[in-house]
Amino acid sequence: MRLLIVGTLEGYITAAGKIAMKRGAKVSHTDSIEGALTALRAAAGADLVMIDVKLDIATFIDSLKSERITIPVVACGIGTDAAAAVRAIRAGAKEYLPLPPNAELIAAVLEAVAEESHSIVCSDPAMLATLRLAEQVAPSDASVMITGESGTGKELMARFIHRKSRRSGEPFVAVNCAAIPENLLESELFGHEKGAFTGAVARRLGKFEEANNGTLLLDELSEMHPRLQAKLLRAIQEKEIDRIGSSQPVRVNVRLIATSNRNLEAEVRSGNFREDLYFRLNVFSVAIPSLRERPADIPMIAEHFLKKYAEANGLGDKRLTEDAMLMLKTHHWRGNVRELENTMHRAVLLSRGEEVGPEAIMLTSKMLAPEGSAQASIPSDSPVANPFAGPGGTVPAAAPSQPAQPGGLPTGYGPPKGGKPGPYGMAANSSAAAAANAGTSGAGLAALIGRTVADVERDLILETLTHCLGNRTHAANILGISIRTLRNKLKQYGDEGRSVPTPGNDERATA
To answer: What is the pTM (predicted TM-score) of this model?
Structure first.
């Protein structure tokens, strides 16, 4: 963890820095915003900025955005000035820390920023064998190619290799080659000189220099343009890079790890990826098995995310019922660990009480799952499926249209263990339990025939927002989409003349 503290903080800078260093952070300090920008442009960089609330935080964050420097910013100020805290958060700060510094509070912030503690949760023999293989190659400086489906945890594996390497005390720098436009990726990787192009307001060191002596992860490398692949190949071969606008090469010493969810050999054959670059990077290959290929990991990962999001939302301890766990074990998991994480996040928000039952499990990728796998999407007794059901509601709960298996679980989930009571004390073979698969029953599908995907999506989004009483953030979490995507959808629906719930705690969509 590299921490940059900006401002004087009226003498509390020393105390805050010492606390952070005791927690394992590397701390640097500058008095001004310009000094902070200069430091962030340099190779040292930072993972977190703590800035004095008296400085112009809005200008600082705007400058970061304009220079494409992505880093969390935490504002700090003397005492508990609510107005200052509000201004800082509105300007774009992630948090506000009152001073004098509290050791536990600073530790919590540092932990939250590095929350992707980068530990890999697993117990399945297939994944354990992959970890042993990665650990074996980690101490070398050989380039590593990590392959696997989207959502399997390729970046976590890269960080694991870095932690086990001789470079573990040096920077680990990741760059997503698919998320940056081709005309900007070159500057991101190799840096630029002041005035090299429009918008280059100062010299900026690239990711290669930032990762010097450490590890550079090139995420989704297969998305890189062939022209840039040639420059990358030269950097690997010569161990030097050329900043844009400079004629002076710079020596670099980095260990490269690349990831891809595509078949790179097929990309090479089709001419989309350079063969010589492929062999340079693929000195050692680590293939991460999909979640379907390591089923023993599903319960452990599910419990991990259940605890994580219950704590994050202040909801206390929660546990999965046996029926809910069976649903998770038999789902196809096209989106792998990322899909499972989103599912558990939604389950935490939808569950009522300490138990998380099948009614809180909203499984996705139904249309993408192969025939014969579990395909439930939104259980009929989920509060999202029937937002108005219950006392005073106007929409009745959907009736089951196909029989459950012996023991009451929907077809595709297997028999329950021991015939224990279902959610809310109902018998496991009750009609409510059978209704959990109503989304894929004949009647459920019949109701969708003749409707477009856009119509169904619109109704799901608006009903979910209704259930959340207009709260956009909660609705986006439940739907598993970003808040920006949700807002864009709602604007589209409003432009089409649809009734959209307004933000607030007491507002619902009209019929």
So the answer is: 0.59
